[in-house]
Write a structure and sequence with these properties.
Structural class of chain A: mainly alpha
CATH topology of the domain at 74-263 in chain A: MetI-like fold
Largest sheet of chain A: none
Radius of gyration of chain A: 24 Å
Shape of chain A: globular
Oligomer: heterodimer
Number of domains of chain B: 2
Number of strands of chain A: 0
CATH superfamily of the largest domain in chain B: MetI-like
CATH topology of the largest domain in chain B: MetI-like fold
Order of helices and strands of chain A: HHHHHHHHHHH
Number of helices of chain B: 11
Number of helices of chain A: 11
CATH class of the largest domain in chain B: Mainly Alpha
Shape of chain B: globular
Helix content of chain A: over 70%
CATH class of the domain at 74-263 in chain A: Mainly Alpha
Strand content of chain B: under 5%
Strand content of chain A: under 5%
Order of helices and strands of chain B: HHHHHHHHHHH
Helix content of chain B: over 70%
Largest sheet of chain B: none
Chain lengths: 289, 250
Amino acid sequence: MAQAGVMKAAVSGEIPMTSKVSRIRLLTCVGFILLWELIATLGSVGVLYNDVVPHIWHIVIATFNELISASFYRDLGMTFAAHIVGFVSGSIIAIFVGIWLGTNLLARESMLPYLNAIGSTPKIIFLPIIFLMFGVGIESKMAKGALSAFFPVVFTTTLGMVLINPVLIRVGRTFNLDKWQMITKIYMPAMVNPVITGLRLGVAITVIGVLVAELKFADGGLGYRLGVYYEQFQIAPMYAVILLIFALAAAANSGMTRLQDRVNRHMAPTSSKGKKAAASASGGLGFGT
Amino acid sequence: MSKLHKMPVVVGMFGVLVLAIILELSVDFGWVMQIIVPRPSDAILSFPVVQEDMDLVGNFFITLGMTAAATLIALLIGLPLGYFLYRREAYGIAYEGWLAALFSTPIVLLYPLFLVLFGRDYHTLVIMGCIPGAVAIAIQTRQGLLGVSQTLLNVGRSFNVSERDMFRKIMLPSATPTIFTGIRLGVMYTLVNIVAIEYLIDFGGLGRIVSQMYDRFDIPETYASILAVILVSSVFYAGFGRVEKWLRPE
């Protein structure tokens, strides 16, 4: 089908959409690099943003230096450990709370307004409480990660429970399944997709939560490293750390998106021709339109 | 269905009250250290102290003003950008993925860079606040316009409606609920970003109060200022949620 479109475009002399899109992207990248270099050059001659926007090769060298530095990997390890512990603990608690809220109407309707209120609040303002409870070590970063992961996962799990096909629940009751069997045989399989959506959001938000906590008070981690470079006005390494953080966040997000796509393909209903219906988790922002 | 099921709001309030009493008693009996968690009553009674010391209401208006300014800039960038990405299909396809990626990146971490570029100023907070807002509004505007029913467009064409009227009378009203979802998300992300940066750089409105109260180790006042931020966020969330429900009737 796509080939036919390309052939048709070639015959009519039009540029196919895919090459138009590639050209726009390429031109945008080139334009951005040129603009950046122009600002950097103006900065180096003292006209604009002196020393604030470094040349791209300075950032590349700084990135290389970061990647061969042992202390970078120590900080990466601290951030990674805080992220994993925070994400796993926050998500597990959230899934259980979500299941409870999803199955209990009274609990859901009475608690959701409060969860929404805290969920819509910038979690960073809870840092003073977390620092008071856990100190300024890695434990507080883990707790902040857990708090950040909790809300997206609890909301999607609750919604996933509420939207389970009632026919499936009636089938479970017809077979006299007990509560635990209902959870493992009916609720869990039906909720895989919404839970993974929540986990995908949770991974990204936990990364931000941990890094922001490290920026405020820490003795290690990538956020702490970024703060140190800022305070010492080491601009090129600062950009290098930001770039590496963004790359790691994008990789984590991409991994979760691939997982969700795989689950979607696995869970999608089989069509009459025996092909799985296409479903993608990567489109849009992840919220309904 | 029991009587309790008919009044979940009362059950919720009762639950919060019971938790507050348990916490109050736990602090009184020494089961919870007062230097970590103050009595709920102390935190509530600290509101006047925070108001007197830090001008809570005045700082609320500073945060509100910056959020409003950032949202306005986000609207001025996001709406035309979303429309452009809808009109120029190739640009829409080329940039949508990038915008979605930008939306999920931790923009708040760029604050050292923005501080270096613009200084420790209100402008920095407004500029950083408006970025995620503009991205959310642009994406949702494009989605909203793409989602306009083909039937409605065909009806417009059969009446020989001009391009301008087609946009004004058919496309815009049809896309409004989706665009408003983008505006709501934009406002929430703008507020979150501004309060977060206020807290991190110890400058501005409500976020700065939380940071300074903690630095002074005034624990009840710290909790009171956190409660104030939660209150503001909830009011924003609930207010925009109501307008969105009104625009998108079931």
